[in-house]
């Protein structure tokens, strides 16, 4: 948010982890991050890495250790749920741990995201269903089973 005009991360810079994320997916992601090439200034981010299965986490740590020996100028951020800080990945990378709390007010965060996710030219796109021609939206309900 310090550079409002800088674009959001591209699809190849972010890995959204779930319990079903495979070792192959994590391996491809780590190779993009850690193998020296013309990456530019990308910052690679693994979201919810604490949700990876034990086997996938072990293989990811091994691959990371092997690849990071060849490259000391990578940019990798691993985000985990603080309630699962004792799972494999947060424990394996605990020496790099930094506890973070969002430092910006919610309204400022929303404004930043609106700047990046608004459709520039209103058209007959799916963005017309969301408020203010946003190309993303969140639909939620406090009640379960209401079809959302």
TrEMBL record:
GO terms for molecular function: ATP hydrolysis activity; ligase activity; ubiquitin-protein transferase activity. InterPro entries: RNF213 (IPR031248). One of its GO terms (biological process) is negative regulation of non-canonical Wnt signaling pathway. Keywords: Ligase. One of its GO terms (cellular component) is membrane. This is RN213 ligase. It comes from Mionectes macconnelli (McConnell's flycatcher). The gene is Rnf213_1.
């Amino acid at each position: 948010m310090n550079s409002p005009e800088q674009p959001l991360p591209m699809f190849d810079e972010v890995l959204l982890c779930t319990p079903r994320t495979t070792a192959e997916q994590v391996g491809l992601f780590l190779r993009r991050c850690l193998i020296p090439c013309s990456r530019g200034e990308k910052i690679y981010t693994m979201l919810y890495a604490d949700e990876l299965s034990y086997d996938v986490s072990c293989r990811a740590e091994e691959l990371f250790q092997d690849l990071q020996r060849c490259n000391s100028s990578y940019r990798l951020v691993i985000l985990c749920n603080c309630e699962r800080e004792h799972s494999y990945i947060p424990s394996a990378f605990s020496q790099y741990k930094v506890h973070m709390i969002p430092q910006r007010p919610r309204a400022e965060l929303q404004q930043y995201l609106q700047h990046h996710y608004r459709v520039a030219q209103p058209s007959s796109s799916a963005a017309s269903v969301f408020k203010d021609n946003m190309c993303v939206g969140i639909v939620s309900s406090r009640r379960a089973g209401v079809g959302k």
